[in-house]
Amino acid sequence: MAEELALDLEELRQLQSIAKRPRIQSLIASEIRNLEKHELPTPECMKAVNNRLDQLESTSKGNMFKSPVLLQTSKEEAKAPVPTPISTSVKVPVNPSLSYVSLASFSWDQDNDKVKIYVSLEGVDQEKVQTEFKPMSFDAKFHDVQGKNYRCAIPKLNKEIVPEKCKVLVKPTRVIITLFKASKGSWPDLHFKEDKLKPNLDKEKDPMAGIMDLMKNMYDEGDDDMKRTIAKAWTDARSGKTADPLKGYP
User: Fold this and answer.
1) Among 56, 89, 119, 227, which residue's beta carbon has the most beta carbons within 10 A?
2) Contact 133, 180 (CB under 8 A)
């Protein structure tokens, strides 16, 4: 085994001495370093190596020339590090059955054209972000963040967005979700909120039903004084004391 290694080593050195292309020289040097990690040949092997070199020299026709056999390597060469292969990143497939931690706390700002949502989350990999933008909603999922999966979503936005323009940008300590508005203007809130003070004017209902709905919403949203006033007006309307349910309301 040692004799074969020695033969291989010396033949590689001969090839290295005549190689001209940098890539070939690098490949041969790498293989020489690998072989030099093994035990050096015995004197008998050295003799066999020299005999083999004599045969190579007698049969060569090109640039091969005789060179002294070097059987000892320097300490620097023996300690030369072996190049480490560079691994390429691979996207991990997303499992739909994964569990997520909801990211309900975040900050946001806006201008006429867009809304930016800032989520504090460290260690997010851009390659492991899954997003779904729709005209009135968005859903952003962040996978394998320090062993957990996170999710930031708003099922119904205040106004429409342009899904194809929206994007997610990963920073070292946070994630920025940019929503592009379908129409320019200011949003009062991120979430859609139905106007509870708008009376229901459904023509199929009693005309007074919309007013009663309005009073109920005002009662739910009002302070104690407003509730007492509305309760009194409601009681009077039911008892027939007044035909106007809003009479007495300041």
Assistant:
1) 119
2) no
